[in-house]
Amino acid sequence: MALTGFPDGPPVASPAAGLAVLERVARELATATRTTGQEVRADPAELIAGRAAITGLTRQGRVSAGGSTRLLRSADGWCAVTLSREADVAALPALLGVLGSGRVPAAEDPWTALASAALARPAHEVAGAAQLLGIPASALPREYPQARWPPWRTTRIAAPILPAPPASSGAARLDGAVVADLSAMWAGPLCARLLGLAGARVIKVESADRPDGARSGDQRFYDWLHAGHRSIALPFGTVEGRAALSALLASADIVIEASRPRALAGLGVAPEMIAHKPGQVWLSITGHGRDEPDLVAFGDDAAVAGGLVGWTGRHWGQGEPVFCADAIADPLTGACGALAVARSLAAGGGELIDLPMRAVAANFAAASLPAHGAHEIAPDGTVWCAALGRAQRVLPPRTPATAPRAARLGADTEAVLAWLGAARG
Predict the structure, then answer these.
(1) ω into residue 166 within 30 of 0, thus cis?
(2) Per-residue pLDDT tens for 352-408?
(3) Which one, 165, 168, 325, 408, has least CB within 10 Å?
(4) What is d(CA 194, CA 304) in angstroms, rounded to the nearest whole number?
């Protein structure tokens, strides 16, 4: 709540019971990891607000806490557009041209020009035009979201490892499992962190030429996600680099990736292009699902696509929408990804898990409120909570414990390659 609402107004409670659902995910993760490794007890409030607490982010209404995404009013509703990369900003003139807005005067703020252009078009047209140019964007659903749990789909890619008689808790385990983490930023690395806490051996895999962009951000946030993980940097543009990557993926028990399918296909390591050892679990995190491979998303616009926003009115669709927390689809997806992997391993593995951030957000947005109903928020930010039977001020984001320094880029490349050679030899 402290991260949701306008900066000059009181906090806003999301009309969905997102935290309650995340608490359920955390409980199920603890149960699943208890049978496949070391029990993981995740703090839901820390998962959602950990980055904001570390980096000092606050609520900004229709500007995301991180500042890269904005909610724009359209002709028939609202849409979200993210300009977080240099390529997104560079494509903005083309987007304005597609929307019929012409060139942006040098003195005009690009966001102002985009907001003006969006007013004349339906939300889905604005988002669609942006997506055609590779800019993350989404339209806010005009109806209350509906979704079916769980938010992931599984397909068989390898034979499962079934428990040998007499049946134990399962032959495929997290404790000691090798995780090849090809993901970047937040959702995938958070999933890897949770699996690491369950006893998995996580190997952070990066391109030597284009490492994880989170490395250039707040070091404390990067350490929180990656402390204790090995780091390998490979030249993906070379035959040797791709061969090493392929060997690592063949040896890993779990693969985490958050790439467009065609990017992995270009490296020759898309899940449908390689053989998988029995029991391997492949987690594919996308913005909108593997059946919509060309749509890109980041945490804030993916949350909007799923309808997970705050409203200045008491119920969904009332008042004006504001961003809910900080890129909330990222941590929710990371937690759900860890649960999906643990569940799959407990059943023997051998599955590809398709986990779209939009579907995760929609599931959390569709959750019904607890029996005590919505919180009553006073203008000074004091909240009456019927469940507690009292009023209290909204608490600030909870800061995670200080983590050890994460491995520098490529620090373990030689050691991991030597291990691969021994494993193959």
Answers:
(1) yes
(2) 999 999 999 999 999 866 555 566 777 777 877 766 678 888 888 989 999 999 999
(3) 165
(4) 25
| Structural domains of the chain ordered from first start | 18-59+145-296+322-424 (3.40.50.10540)
- Say if residue 207's pLDDT is above 50: yes
Cα separation, 320 vs 333, whole angstroms: 25
Please report how the helices 329-346 and 18-36 are oriented relative to each other, as an axis angle in degrees rounded to 10: 30
- CA 66 and chain centroid, separation: 14
d(CA 282, CA 273): 13
